[in-house]
Design brief:
The protein is of the alpha/beta class. It contains 13 helices and 7 strands. The chain folds into 3 domains: 4-100, 2-Layer Sandwich (Nucleotidyltransferase, domain 5), CATH 3.30.420.40; 113-203; 208-329, no CATH class.
Length: 342
């Protein structure tokens, strides 16, 4: 039974520690350099080490587990209310311990090296997409200055190329050259995005969790890999709705006095998985995807009564709950049985 809890305020070079008993009584405060911190924690008897879930936290969590400590990570927004008066490293370390000792506190599951590696590749592709979008918008802005209006989206790139190739174009030669340079950069980004996409598809191979998730309609390799890379163990959620809430796919509440007031989707959770689930839900509601929707099903009835975007949000929520069920029960997706008329 561990009798000491150590709150660690992480940094690049200087680490602030706050040691306390499990009842909250102060044992020590220390300010250590990186090598001193590693040495101190190696020599210290096994303890409960608590850190904020921030940069390098998952690395240090794995390092602390290797030398026998129990590690807990807390979201920074749950620590902030426990900071006393002015903010400094010592106050932050103490607040981490105080927050961790609350019986109702929620903790973040530490990520493995493999999870973090997949997340790095996933975010690299996402970064390239953002950079390409910036280039496309810059190109549209240049043309707009000369009276040419082009809709948003990479799909209208051929329309821009046609404008530049028009004989006797009203665009100055210097502007045409700059636009061609931007188109060349966009082409390079597109090639790199396609290469990253293929790499991610290989990572989300035909075996394991990713294969199981792809048996669900609306879930492709990127969504499956995002769940593997960013989601914690599904056993940490009591039910599927908890996982949907962790993704931010539940209504924002402003309830009081026994009256429920539900607003728009909270968007307070994991943005990458949430975005991909909504995209997957929308793909099931377009003209091609609707062919697989059974008449009289829940989805068909919702489409009759509600706007398509609202139905997509509801479907994304249901997909999240289904993912939780599939992974906790180790089962592939099963199509719901059609309702039988009495």
């Amino acid at each position: 039974m561990k009798d000491t809890m150590i709150g660690v305020d992480l940094a690049k070079h200087v680490f602030q520690l706050h040691g306390a008993s499990m009842a909250g009584h102060l044992k020590f405060r220390k300010k250590l350099s990186r090598p001193q911190f590693q040495k101190f924690m190696t020599e210290h008897p096994p303890a409960v080490v608590v850190m904020e879930a921030c940069g390098s936290a998952h690395y240090w969590a794995r390092e602390m587990v290797k030398i026998g400590h129990e590690v807990k990570l807390i979201a920074p927004q749950y620590v902030k209310p426990f900071v006393k008066r002015q903010k400094n490293d010592a106050a932050d370390a103490e607040a981490i311990v105080v927050a961790a000792q609350r019986p109702e506190m929620r903790f973040v599951e530490p990520k493995s090296e493999e999870q973090q590696a997949k997340a790095v590749v996933f975010r690299a592709r996402q970064r390239l997409v953002h950079q390409r979008t910036d280039l496309v918008n810059a190109l549209r802005a240049v043309l707009y200055e000369y009276g040419h209006i082009v809709p948003q989206g990479i799909g209208h790139l051929k329309r821009i190329e046609a404008i530049l190739k028009t004989p006797n174009s009203d665009l100055p030669e210097l502007v045409c050259q700059e636009c061609q340079d931007l188109i060349g950069q966009i082409g390079q980004k597109t090639e790199r995005i396609e290469a990253k996409t293929e790499q991610l598809k290989k990572l989300a191979g035909p075996t394991g969790t990713a294969r199981r998730l792809q048996t669900m309609p609306g879930v492709g390799p990127l969504t499956a890999l995002a769940v593997e890379a960013f989601a914690p163990n599904m056993a940490s959620f009591k039910c599927g709705r908890d996982f949907a809430a962790w993704l931010g796919l539940v209504p924002r509440q402003h309830s009081s006095g026994g009256k429920e007031r539900l607003g728009r989707v909270s968007k307070e959770g994991q943005a990458d998985i949430r975005r991909l689930l909504i995209v997957g839900a929308m793909s099931r509601l377009n003209w091609l995807g609707r062919k697989s929707i059974l008449p009289g099903s829940w989805l068909a009835r919702m489409l009759v009564r509600k706007p398509r975007m609202l139905v997509a949000m509801a479907l994304a929520n249901k997909m999240a709950r289904t993912i939780w069920a599939m992974l906790t029960k180790n089962e592939d997706y099963r199509n719901p049985a059609p309702a039988v008329a009495a």
